[in-house]
Design brief:
The protein is an all-alpha fold. The chain has 20 helices and no strands.
Length: 464
């Protein structure tokens, strides 16, 4: 337990830094760039999420197979060979991506965005491989330092661009690339004994690569489906409306997900920790973490009211879309439950097939709701509400799969969390302002009162 709390403190610090950077970028970059330039910056962030799949699940397989192992026990020669092969593969992908951007990009700005994405592949994917090694082997201090370096450098460089007063999205993207490059250099130094630019594709290396890909590809396809769940809605908004509307909705999603940095402090260290304890304790730990998550996130939702008022004042050009925060702000609960609990437990129990199935069923729902709300009804409000509905469904479906392996009682919890989210959305969307704040505060007070015993148990466990 002391080791767990120590690791959480490292990830908490790194995520606090990430939160500060995210807040500064969310508040100052859109104001400095303007709506259209900010839209292209968000387009870069949107597509960069999908480049992580260009390793075909290779890095995911390393994380799944070696998660919980000790760094000292890793086969040095085997890792040196496969990391060299990994880097060669990503270099080829980067070259092909840049060539396609020059040949097929529909506009000059989009061509520049895709070229910068090609450069990012060179830095981000090898970094991801080493990042998974550090996280999976519980070297959380080094892992957290890597995150701090990447986010702090990005934030510093991006703010320099803002302070200089240059409204160029490419320079802000360049700031992101600087952070990724320096973080990669740090990761290479920390893992210097298991990496090499020279490699030999021996029979054992090829076998190792194939096994990692075969295991990780299931998780990769599940992650692709997970990103497409919301990605399809966002892409459709950009197609049906314009890049400016896309940027505005993306800003709303960015602000709504700021709370996730705290939740990731726990989720980052949970998988290697669970792998080292007895499975019979999993369900008890699950309930305690879930109750703590509900107490934390439902309380954090109170921040919405002053935050929304400030953003409308600070970013008046985005005011027409900031109202959708009332619908999207609760995403932090569903994404937090998925990240910290449901998917972490499914990975720990090696139930990647269930993650795959859950994401693809939810993707089908996303396609249906996107077609209906964006292309049939052509209603932006319905499209945004569909995002919340989709994540609520995905969270519940994942818990149902998990309950088949562990003794979990879900009905009461699902009713309570759905009621709390519904109360928040109604108070924020239909009432708003001080009255909405008072209404939701009263509901949250009742929630705390009814769950007093379980919450006290959590506090005692933390104190112990």
């Amino acid at each position: 337990m002391p080791s767990l709390l120590k690791n959480i403190s490292y990830t908490f610090l790194s995520n606090v830094i990430a939160l500060i950077v995210s807040v500064l970028v969310a508040f100052f970059v859109p104001k400095a760039l303007g709506v259209e330039n900010y839209g292209y910056f968000q387009l870069y962030l949107f597509y960069i999420n999908y480049t992580g799949f260009l390793h075909f699940g290779w890095a995911d397989g390393v994380f799944l197979r070696y998660g919980g192992a000790y760094y000292e026990s890793l086969d040095r020669d085997l890792f040196k060979s496969q990391f060299g092969a990994f880097c060669v593969l990503e270099f080829l992908f980067s070259a092909v991506f840049c060539a396609c951007a020059l040949q097929f990009a529909p506009s000059e700005n989009k061509c520049l965005v895709f070229l910068l994405i090609g450069v990012s592949i060179l830095f981000s994917l090898p970094k991801t491989f080493l990042q998974y090694v550090l996280q999976g082997t519980n070297r959380i201090r080094e892992y957290s330092t890597l995150i701090i370096i990447e986010r702090a450098l990005f934030g510093f460089c991006a703010l320099m661009v803002v302070l200089v007063g240059v409204d160029n999205f490419a320079l802000v993207i360049g700031a992101d690339l600087v952070g990724k490059f320096v973080a990669l250099c740090y990761a290479l130094y920390q893992c210097r004994d298991i990496i090499s630019v020279k490699f030999r594709l021996t029979k054992s290396t090829i076998s190792e690569i194939w096994e990692n890909i075969s295991v990780g590809s299931k998780l990769m396809f599940a992650n692709i489906a997970s990103l497409l769940i919301i990605g399809i809605v966002r892409w459709s908004i950009e197609q049906e409306w314009d890049v400016s509307t896309f940027g505005k909705i993306s800003l709303t999603l960015t602000v709504s997900n700021l709370v996730m940095v705290f939740i990731r402090s726990v989720s980052m260290v949970l998988l290697p920790t669970l792998r080292r304890i007895d499975e019979s304790r999993y369900s008890d730990i699950y309930y305690e973490l879930k109750n703590g998550l509900m107490l934390f996130v439902f309380g954090i939702l109170l921040i919405f009211y002053p935050l929304n008022a400030f953003l409308i004042y600070w970013l008046p050009d985005y005011a027409d879309c900031l109202r959708y925060m009332a619908i999207l702000f609760p995403l932090c609960f569903y994404e937090g439950k998925l990240s910290m609990l449901v998917e972490t437990y499914l990975k720990t129990l090696r139930m990647e097939n269930k993650i795959f199935l859950s994401n693809f069923v939810t993707l089908a729902l996303s396609l249906l709701l996107t077609w209906l709300t964006v292309f049939v009804l052509e209603n932006l409000t319905y499209a945004v509400f569909a995002i919340l509905t989709i994540f609520a469904f995905k969270s519940s479906l994942g818990e149902c799969f998990l309950s088949r392996r562990m003794p979990l009682s879900l009905i009461k919890g699902l009713i309570v969390e759905s009621a709390m989210i519904a109360c928040f959305v109604c108070s924020a969307w239909f009432v708003g302002g001080v009255n909405g704040l008072c209404l939701y505060l009263a509901v949250y007070a009742l929630f705390v009162a009814f769950n007093k015993k379980s919450l006290l148990k959590i506090l005692k466990r933390i104190k112990k």
